[in-house]
Specification:
10 helices; alpha/beta; about 10% strand; six-stranded parallel beta sheet; about 240 residues; Rossmann fold
Length: about 240
């Protein structure tokens, strides 16, 4: 079974745009996430590194070298600046040429052909955002919204409000698809969006909001959505 509830088509009848998470949803993640690499270099726990990144580095654009210096100074690791810079620069290069999951292009192409506006909402490190948007995002998405540009990270309500303003749509017209039950699903459900949890690893356990569909592949998504109408396309960008 790939979705729960089994028939969200009626509930999603008013959906005009779909917003995806990036890493783990559209983009193949690294074997060791960047934040994990930073934690290892600094000799701290992953939980602590995530907290530090969420408080600052995910809320503003910053050069890899500058972030490396800031982190090294904060934790008294001046000798680690070089190693941190290498980690952060590698992450930025990978982000400039993202590798997509195999189901992404067919699913998003089908959704665009049916008239849905498509966005991505990411909590990427500000140091990882490429100077120029990757070509593949321009081909498949109307816009990518980064927390580093909005100053808000998922699951904060303002992160989702940024997409509402950009799209010109309201909560019940938007569907969030993501692999994080806390940041993506719970955050979007809390502000009234429709939600789908992408459970690529077939975990299948743990709490999700009651009306959340569970997918194991994006190939299922077009089958669960009604025929698209003519959604409002973004006319301005709040992320550039």
């Amino acid at each position: 079974m790939t979705a729960q509830p089994p028939s969200p088509r009626h509930a999603w009848a008013g959906v005009r745009a779909i917003c995806f998470d990036l890493g783990g949803t559209l983009v193949l993640p690294d074997a060791e996430p960047t934040t994990g690499q930073v934690a290892r270099v600094l000799g701290m726990s992953l939980a602590e590194a995530r907290r530090v990144m969420e408080l600052g580095a995910k809320r503003r654009r910053v050069r890899p070298a500058d972030l490396a210096e800031s982190l090294a100074a904060r934790f008294g690791r001046a000798s680690h600046v070089g190693a941190l810079t290498l980690v952060l620069e590698r992450a930025r290069r990978r982000a400039s040429e993202p590798e997509l999951f195999e189901d992404v292009r067919p699913a998003l192409t089908a959704l665009r052909q049916r008239g849905f506006a498509l966005f991505a909402l990411s909590n990427s490190l500000g140091s990882s955002i490429p100077a120029e948007p990757p070509t593949v995002f321009g081909e498949l998405l109307d816009e990518v919204v980064y927390s580093a540009d909005t100053g808000s990270v998922k699951p904060e309500p303002e992160a989702f409000a940024a997409v509402e303003r950009l799209s010109g749509l309201v909560a019940h017209q938007l569907l969030l698809v993501g692999d994080s039950r806390r940041a993506d699903v719970a955050g979007a459900a809390a502000v009234g969006w429709h939600t789908a949890w992408l459970d690529r690893h077939h975990v299948g356990t743990g709490p999700v909001p009651g009306q959340t569909a569970r997918l194991t592949t994006l190939a299922t998504l077009p089958l669960l959505l009604p025929a698209g109408s003519s959604p409002a396309r973004p006319t301005t960008s709040e992320t550039r």
